Amino acid sequence: AQSVSQHNHHVILSEAASLELGCNYSYGGTVNLFWYVQYPGQHLQLLLKYFSGDPLVKGIKGFEAEFIKSKFSFNLRKPSVQWSDTAEYFCAVTNTGGFKTIFGAGTRLFVKA
Amino acid sequence: KAGVTQTPRYLIKTRGQQVTLSCSPISGHRSVSWYQQTPGQGLQFLFEYFSETQRNKGNFPGRFSGRQFSNSRSEMNVSTLELGDSALYLCASSTHFSSGNTIYFGEGSWLTVV
């Protein structure tokens, strides 16, 4: 069955620190990958997505993610976090023809000012 | 363009009751998905509808059901509520669900079962 694993449930960083959130999925076919973010009190919104082509994708607010097919991974990175990045981050995968997007359990990031 | 609208935003129900949640997708979006969000569990897929047809269903008991109307609006129903059904229920829409299409979320309906 299709699944998404996020390695860290809680991450605490100081401002200006670098961020990497791990995401692995299990599905052997063609997939599309997403990172969504949920800021406190707000609804989920798309950070970035990968469909095809360059495995390094850039999203909003300086985030990027790299798709490594051989590792079934899609890790999210940001070189320097800000206090405003405090939020919950969800990795998600959609397989072709499946008509559903599967989400990981989420990673709560807290950035100390 | 208005976003995904969910009603009601907050509700409290008693065990054994039933509840109906409503979702209006973004104009022009014909695919609607429902998710249950609980702390530590992330988002669990409930079902997806397109043109009034359920195309996929998650691993939830039959107490959870849904439907979609001709105007793409959708409802989900939970019967015989249990305490464990307390969660944030999210609706998401997309133009047509195919790989690669972004889904857009509403703010959710907070359900508390007491």
Tell me the layout of helices and strands.
The complex is a heterodimer of chains A (113) and B (114).
Chain A: E1 3-6, E2 10-14, E3 19-21, E4 23-26, E5 31-38, E6 45-50, E7 56-58, E8 64-68, E9 73-78, E10 87-95, E11 101-103, E12 107-112
Parallel strand pairs in A: 2-12
Antiparallel strand pairs in A: 1-4, 3-9, 5-6, 5-10, 7-8, 8-9, 10-11, 10-12
Chain B: E1 5-7, E2 10-13, E3 19-24, E4 31-38, E5 42-50, E6 53-57, E7 64-68, E8 74-78, E9 87-94, E10 104-105, E11 109-113
Parallel strand pairs in B: 2-11
Antiparallel strand pairs in B: 1-3, 3-8, 4-5, 4-9, 5-6, 7-8, 9-10, 9-11
Q: Can you walk me through this structure?
A:
The complex is a heterodimer of chains A (113) and B (114). Chain A is mostly beta strands and 113 residues long. Chain A contains no helices and twelve strands. In chain A, strands 2, 5, 6, 10, 11 and 12 form a six-stranded mixed sheet that branches. In chain A, strand 10 (87-95) and strand 11 form a beta hairpin. Chain A is globular and about 45 Å long. With 114 residues, chain B is mostly beta strands. Chain B has strands spanning 5-7, 10-13, 19-24, 31-38, 42-50, 53-57, 64-68, 74-78, 87-94, 104-105, 109-113. In chain B, strands 2, 4, 5, 6, 9, 10 and 11 form a seven-stranded mixed sheet that branches. In chain B, strands 1-3-8-7 form a four-stranded antiparallel sheet, with no helix packed on it. Chain B is globular, with a radius of gyration of 13 Å. The termini of chain B are far apart. The chains are: A mainly beta (113), B mainly beta (114). The interface between A and B is medium-sized, with 29 and 28 residues.
